[in-house]
Amino acid sequence: MVKTEQPTAERDRARANREPPQPGTAIPPIQPVLRSLNPDAAPGRNGQNAVHLPTATPTEQSPQGPAIHAELAAEQHVLSTEDFKLHYGKHRALHGITMQIPAGKVTALIGPSGCGKSTLLRSFNRLNDLIENVRVDGRIRFQGQDIHDRKVDVIRLRKKMGMVFQKSNPFPMSIFENVVYALRIGGERRRRVLDEVCEKSLRSAALWDEVKDRLHTSALGMSGGQQQRLCIARAIAAEPEVLLMDEPCSALDPIATGKVEELMYALRGRYTVVIVTHNMQQAARVSDYTAFMYMGRLVEYGPTNAIFVNPHLKETESYVTGRFG
Amino acid sequence: MQIASAYIRGKSHLMFGLCILFTAVILAVLGMVSGYLISLGYKSVDFALFTQLPVPAGALGFPGGLQNGIVGSIIMIALASLIGIPIGMLTGIYLAEYSSRAWLAGPVRFIADVLTGVPSIVVGILGYELLVVPLGTYNGWAGAAALAFIMIPLVARTTEEMLLLVPRGYREASVALGATKARTILRVVVPAAFGSVITGIMLAIARVAGETAPLLFTALGSRFLESNPSRPFPSLTVQIYHAAMEPYKEENRKAWAGILVLLALIFVLNVTVRLTMRASGYGARAAR
Prior knowledge:
The complex is a heterodimer of chains A (325) and B (288).
Chain A: H1 2-17, H2 30-37, E1 67-68, E2 77-88, E3 91-102, E4 106-110, H3 117-124, E5 134-142, E6 145-146, H4 154-159, E7 161-164, H5 175-179, H6 181-185, H7 191-204, H8 208-211, H9 224-237, E8 242-246, H10 254-267, E9 272-276, H11 280-286, E10 289-294, E11 297-303, H12 304-309, H13 314-320
Parallel strand pairs in A: 1-11, 4-9, 4-10, 7-8, 8-9
Antiparallel strand pairs in A: 2-3, 2-5, 5-6, 10-11
Helix pairs in contact in A: 7-9, 9-10
Chain B: H1 2-41, H2 47-51, H3 67-98, H4 105-116, H5 120-132, H6 140-164, H7 168-176, H8 181-209, H9 213-216, H10 236-245, H11 249-279, H12 282-287
């Protein structure tokens, strides 16, 4: 019994040492992130040399509304939400999210567990329709069209949005059949087309060289990292316009994570990518824009650089520096 | 500390020992039953059993074989499977995939559970009332329908349970790729559960293969090799039943041989289906 107390005391002391510095002083953990983000920018204190100064960008900074950085206004938007609310039964998971997803960019959704990031992501392709007792309110527009409109064909909507899940979920079929699944359900039968798409998608997912000799063996025999890249290949085989990724690396080892991140980096420009992640370094590495969510609300949304180096809000700063969440 | 851990270890060993003991008891019972059957039946299993029709006592060639019963059972079980498996599987798919918001699901599930426990003789009387009386004669269709009626709830409930075990991620991935619900079910969910669904179907077939009571009122049985299910139809189980009731030793021995043949048929069917599944790649899925 005595022995177990000691580590607790040590931990308390360690925690005390990590107490946040006085407001106004720089927070040490930012530095490595900053360097990895923007090698050109000198790691100045308080962001003196950083690109985005808090005072330079006017925002709707208020306790009620989210802080949306001005840079977003300059982007072309492919997806947007307007006061989007979502309820699971009586529990409200999203409290009126208004945000715009820039086209051709990687947008990361960060925030502590249960803050509604995944729920929001799954709202974009209406995957929450599968869950009972989900009620939505407000609008989501994809290419200007309200996705909850009666006239919208949800099947076509989902074909335009590839999705990669937290847990890799290749179907219990061959690798080949997994990749061409979207084409098969679209009625494509020409062998040549299927072969071409399979190779192209697997190459895009940086998986071709590893699996080209065993395309017709079960996908379940692959390693975890390979399975997740297969799921990405399967998603991009359908040639979607948006790629939704729900913590795609949370079950992967660092090497597989690195490969998937490289892949995301390579996909930018061609696809609009929205990625939910718990890993803030990952958000900093792969995304152009970052949205910080908390308790079902959008807190701050802006260029990744700014969010990690010079967030407008204290809450965001505390989260990205690891002091809460 | 030492005492407590020895006590806990002792309990763990005890638990393990009990599991081993009762497994051994079950295996022993199984071994006794099959050993008894084989020791009594093997002497009477000969070529004639499969090639000759039964011969009545006193006639030349008595007691004859069980050819008509073996063939009749195979035909009738095949017919029952053709009727029962699709209906059962579709019901199971409905229960697992479509019924979450439907008021019908609860009653269907409850009725299926009740039907699983209905004595088979009741099913036989039902078949008699519905298919024998209106058609004016005992017939093979009525027998097959009665067997199918026993299979449907078994197949439906196992299918439902196995489909519910398929990870939700498969369904979500398929739907997110733009598949309709029907395609998701047919192309992903059912194939993923196929191995275990087949196991359930095999159990249902084995169950009805041993049924006698529902056939007494429906197919009745026949002394001839019959291929027309509209007439009274022979089956192995009914023949075993009659042979066992006869006062002649030869007939009784034929009954033992018949039981052995029945067991062997179910065994062969099971092994064949499993090997076929493994060859077609489903075995790996089932084993996962």
